[in-house]
């Protein structure tokens, strides 16, 4: 199979298959989408399978539309939409905070090597408030129509 590549060795679990321990942390963070009673349509694909499809695309670097249907992860568009929806719902930020808290509680983080960049944090006391950048152009752009 061309998509497995040389990194996944025989007998190893592919990195896009979500282990049970990780799924126990991710599953509760995912938003519950109720099924419409008036027009139910096709049954929604299992979130765990879709997550595996997302991880497959991210691991292999293939375009979303080339996700093989034979893998059972749904279409690339389904995976892309679910990734977008989960991002908008804050799932990844919550998972990041949860995993950091668990690692910190276990004493597995070395905070002496943590770095905070000013591009992510605004100075609260005495720092300038973000303002719109001034244009460097000598005048407004010409109308080309």
Helix and strand arrangement:
Layout: H1 20-26, H2 47-60, H3 76-88, H4 91-105
Helix pairs in contact: 2-3
Outline of this structure?
The chain is mainly alpha-helical and 145 residues long.
Outline the structure in words.
It is built from four helices and no strands. It has helices at residues 20-26, 47-60, 76-88, 91-105. It has a domain at 45-107. It is mainly alpha-helical and 145 residues long. The longest helix has 15 residues, at 91-105.
Percent of residues in helical segments? 25-40%
In total, the number of strands is 0
Largest sheet: none
Uncertain segments: 1-5
* Binned strand content: under 5%
Count of helix runs: 4
Cα shape? extended
**What is the C-alpha radius of gyration, as a whole number of Å?**
22 Å
List the main descriptive attributes of the protein structure presented here:
mainly alpha; extended; 0% strand; 145 residues
